[in-house]
Write a structure and sequence with these properties.
Elements lengths: L1 H13 L18 E5 L6 H12 L6 E5 L10 H10 L4 E5 L8 H11 L4 E6 L2 H11 L4 E4 L5 H7 L10 H4 L5 H9 L4 H8 L13 H23 L4 H16 L7 H8 L3 H13 L3 E4 L14 E4 L2 H7 L5 H13 L5 E3 L5 E3 L3 E6 L14 E5 L9 E3 L8
Parallel strand pairs: 1-4, 1-5, 2-3, 3-4, 10-11, 11-12
Antiparallel strand pairs: 6-7, 8-9, 9-10
Helix pairs in contact: 3-4, 10-14, 12-13
Length: 400
């Protein structure tokens, strides 16, 4: 127990307090049970340690513990909470809770019900695991999800500009007022700054080491998600895990990737249903993003209409031969995901919130594919500014 406490104090003392993620100010830290989920590497641990340091200090009434610590191999969360509470503690922060081998949902329920003035916050990288727990803890738990760095946050982390997030409605304003307000606040040309971010700035650890080291770390995150996180909630054999990696390899090397379940099932040597299940696991693990045709179509539940990598940095880390069209679509989807519902579109590339239709392309992209469709827009890459219903691609990086 003493080693656990010393580790907590050391980590809290060492955490940087210069840059904070967008979600930090939106979390109701006063709530008694908080869930923060998100893919590996997006900054959940740092955000939690920053809050402890800001509000309690290293040796205060708050305790941090990672559930993959060896202490939990012989001890329970409930025991830790009881000890901490009886010694004057008020707040417990648990990291990587999906690595805990016991019944953490039941133990958190017991803590919540038995210690009415005690607070618990927990994080997990396995969204498969945490999503299944929301139903059990829904009456007690307040859930949040953290995504990677947006273009807007990247600029803030670089000390170049501190610009507030914009709404999708402001982004689509035909007068393009917000667009020019952003351009006028930037110290350099927006397209040059966007090029520096795209594929190289989604994860907060982009600042450590060179590009090769950054992509290597992303590779390790993916490997950990497949070989450690998924097996904690799914009874999968080693051969199936190997085929998940094989599926990613096919996605990365078939450029541009087009979803063909029958072809994939033959290449991976699994059934069509297994391919669909594999994509679902990779989606919940924050590695790919599955897009469906919309909730109104019963057939859309059976298989996704389009599959993209979760973000451009994963795509570039896995593939040395990337398709610019896929990069554009991957970027837009990753920027829209935190606040909007994204669907595959019958015409165009994306249907957003079942209202807005986006066709994505280069700066010379025309409206041919979405002509005469209400609320349709062309999203143009390599364009500093837009006109009317033509929106610059980089603007989507300011949505959160």
């Amino acid at each position: 127990m003493e080693n656990l406490i010393r580790t907590s104090q050391r980590l809290i003392n060492a955490v940087q307090m210069t840059t904070f993620r967008y979600l930090y100010d939106f979390v109701n830290w006063n709530d008694r049970l908080i869930m923060i989920k998100g893919a590996r590497g997006v900054g959940k641990t740092t955000m939690m340690l920053q809050h402890i340091k800001a509000c309690f200090g290293p040796a205060g009434k708050a305790l941090y513990a990672s559930c993959d610590n060896i202490w939990f191999s012989e001890n329970k969360i409930l025991e830790l909470a009881d000890y901490h509470y009886n010694h004057g503690g008020t707040h417990l922060y648990l990291d990587e809770i999906h690595r805990y081998t016991g019944n953490w949902q039941q133990e958190l329920k017991n803590i919540y019900d038995s210690y009415p003035d005690y607070h618990v916050a927990f994080t997990g990288s396995s969204m498969i695991h945490l999503d299944s727990a929301i139903a059990d803890l829904s009456r007690r738990c307040l859930p949040y999800q953290l995504y990677g760095l947006s273009f807007r946050e990247h600029l803030k982390f670089e000390g170049l500009a501190d610009i507030s997030p914009i709404s999708l409605e402001a982004l689509l304003d035909p007068a393009h007022t917000t667009e020019w307000e952003i351009i006028n606040q930037l110290p350099e040309k927006v397209l040059a700054l966007f090029k520096q971010y795209l594929g190289k700035g989604y994860y907060p650890f982009y600042t450590t080491g060179g590009q090769g080291e950054y992509y290597g770390r992303i590779d390790r995150l993916i490997d950990t998600s497949i070989n450690r996180d998924i097996p904690t909630v799914e009874n999968v054999e080693y051969e199936t895990l190997h085929k998940l990696s094989r599926l990613l390899y096919v996605m990365a090397t078939e450029v541009p990737f087009t979803l063909n379940v029958q072809s994939l099932s033959e290449k991976i040597q699994v059934s069509r249903n297994t391919i669909i299940k594999m994509f679902d696991l990779l989606d919940k693990g924050g590695i790919v993003r599955c897009l469906y045709s919309g909730w109104r179509s019963p057939k859309s539940v059976a298989k996704p209409g389009k599959v993209l990598f979760d973000n451009t940095d994963i795509m570039m880390a896995l593939s040395s031969s990337t398709d610019i069209g896929t990069i554009r679509e991957t970027f837009i989807a990753s920027m829209l995901a935190p606040k909007h519902n994204i669907f595959e579109a019958q015409s165009g590339d994306f249907l957003v919130d079942e209202k807005y239709l986006f066709e994505v392309g280069g700066k010379r992209k025309t409206f041919k594919q979405v002509a005469d469709i209400p609320n349709s827009y062309v999203v143009a890459d390599d364009a500093e500014s837009g006109v009317g219903s033509r929106i610059p691609l980089w603007m989507f990086g300011f949505l959160y």
